[in-house]
Every structure is written in C-alpha cells, then in structure tokens.
C-alpha cells in the first residue's frame, strides 16, 4: 500500500489525476488541463501558474465557462469572476491492515453500479446534493450502491486518482433510507476494494459538514490538511 511519503501527490490531486490515471478523460492546452465535459468541471494549472497558464485555461474552457479549481491555492487574474469559496479538509485513510473485501460486502446488499444505473444515480444526487456529479462522472471509477425494493437508496464512488491514491466521493443516502448504516457499509466496501488493488483511500469534506467529518473519522480517516475550494468563471 502507498505510504505517507507518497502523499505529496495529494497536494495537486486534480492535476496528478489528469496527468495519470484519468489522462484519457483530459483535455489540455499549454500548461492547463481539465476534465472533458460531462465527467467533471475540475481544472488544473501548474503549481505556480503565470499569466500564460491562466490564459491557456481560459481558452481551453471558453469564455464565460465555469472553472472549478478545486483545492488549488493559486487564484486567477482579477478579470475572472469568483463563483464560490468553501473551506474544507483533505483526509487520508489511516486504518491498520488490509480490510477483508468479502467480509465488507457479505450480506450488506452492496452492488456495483454500471452505466445502466446512471439515471438513478443522477436522481439520487439531485435529491441529496453530495457534491458535483454529472452524466459521465461514473467513468472516473467504481461506484457502489444499495437498493431497497429495487430503488437505489444509497451510493458511493471513486473520483480523483493521483498515483497510489483513490478518492472516495459521492457519498449519499436518500432521506427515507437514512439511519440504517448504508453509508458505513458502502464506504467500508469501497475502502476494501481500493486497498485490495494497492491504493490508499482519501477524501475531501466541507468544513461545515460536521456530521460527515465525524463519520469519516470513525471509519479511520485522519485530517491531512485544511484546504480551500474555489470556483471561477472565465473572462
């Protein structure tokens, strides 16, 4: 499993993911990169971007388009319109040993979600608002769900994948199915899958989402650093 010495890749999770595992889902221009439309709105520029890098990103996305710069500490030129600023944390899984994949999924009702489940996934996201999720977001990695009476009531999936790491994201449960431990079962099952292939789980959470933060800490996640999420509109 990846060690903490390799955690430097998490300082630029979007850029590292676009350069590596998700290169096939990237579009590029000069020093800028972004996911293709429909997958994610995340964008990346070099660690110390100059005016040319920001110009590349603006041209890549087009005028008046949304640029989610995620946790990038650099800010674009003043003619970029701020859309949002949100304080958050980056957490890494510090659990001991290798979780038992068969035990994590046995009798839990956890199922893998494929492309045929996308309409249901989008509906669940619309009702629960776990964060950005688009028609092709499922292409970023494995998505797991729990069904009740045939209906999808809970979900979790993989998002950014810097070298040696896999981000857990889209954790959501329908209002009528909360309080039954679905999120815990799903996260544990996904942790087991990630660890089984030699990666280490990490995730991001909004600072204000104290309930989710407490849940992740109970599941073995520890804060690596505080981050600020930002989004802008191109000039």
From TrEMBL:
It comes from Streptomyces massasporeus. Keywords: Acyltransferase, Transferase. It holds the Pfam family FR47. Residues 108-235 form the N-acetyltransferase domain. This is GNAT family N-acetyltransferase.
């Amino acid at each position: 499993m990846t060690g903490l010495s390799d955690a430097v890749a998490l300082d630029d999770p979007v850029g590292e993911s676009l350069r590596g595992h998700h290169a096939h889902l990237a579009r590029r221009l000069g020093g800028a990169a972004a996911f293709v439309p429909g997958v994610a709105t995340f964008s990346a520029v070099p660690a110390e971007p100059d005016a040319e890098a920001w110009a590349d990103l603006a041209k890549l996305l087009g005028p008046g388009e949304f640029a989610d710069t995620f946790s990038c500490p650099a800010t674009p030129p003043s003619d970029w319109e701020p859309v949002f600023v949100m304080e958050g944390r980056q957490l890494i899984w510090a659990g001991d040993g290798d979780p038992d994949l068969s035990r994590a999924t046995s009798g839990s009702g956890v199922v893998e979600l494929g492309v045929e489940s996308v309409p249901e996934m989008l509906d669940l996201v619309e009702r629960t608002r776990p964060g950005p999720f688009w028609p092709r977001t499922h292409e970023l990695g494995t998505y797991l769900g729990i069904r009740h009476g045939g209906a999808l009531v809970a979900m979790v999936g993989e998002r950014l994948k810097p070298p040696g790491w896999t981000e857990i994201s889209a954790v959501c449960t329908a209002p009528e199915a909360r309080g039954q431990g679905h999120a815990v079962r799903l996260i544990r099952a996904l942790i087991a899958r990630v660890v089984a292939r030699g990666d280490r789980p990490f995730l991001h959470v909004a600072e204000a989402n104290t309930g989710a933060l407490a849940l992740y800490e109970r599941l073995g996640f520890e804060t690596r650093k505080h981050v600020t999420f930002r989004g802008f509109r191109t000039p």
